[in-house]
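Quarterly update from the structural biology core.
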Amino acid sequence: MSAIPEQSAASPGRRPMSERRRDFVRLEIEHAGMDLFAQRGYDNVTVADIAAAAGIGRRTFFHHFRSKEELLSAYDTRLAIRALHAFERRPATESAAVALCAAILSTAEMSDEDERVALQRNTVLQQAQADTLIAGPPEVAEAFLDEAATRTRTRLDRDLSPHVVVWTVFAAARAATRVWIAEEGRGRLHARLEEAFGQLLGGIGEL
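Predicted structure, tokenized:
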């Protein structure tokens, strides 16, 4: 099991008010920043611009985010951590590739409004050339690799299989997302991901 903490609002009523307020402020800053990135372009927005749009000072911004780069990646980082925990919870009988595809698909089940936000954010990430295959700190990618190694009964320091599974599946997810952005979100991201994974699994599904 990964040491990456679950980032979920599954039981908001049980969390201290201070934590819920902190998360609310962080999301407000994030929304303000992403709206500005979408309107002006990532390179044309400063931390001061984001703070002003969120109605806060620079000091408050830096209490929640170290930089505008961290703000840009925050949404994808949350999705990556959700997918990681979903990956770890998949049945042990599934191959690593099948389990990882199913885990990523579970994060793409969104309402219309959530999908609109996802389209905006993925478009901004692509424009800013920040659409890395796995968002977040390096330990997130390492946790996916660890889980894949467990499922393929291999070692990361000597076997290719877990590396091929993780990076190939995430590359297919990125390809599907790019096509979805190019068609301006007219279809469902979930459907594009299913299509990409369906094409992929015939090749690595047994790993």
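The domain at 12-65 is CATH 1.10.10.60 (Arc Repressor Mutant, subunit A).
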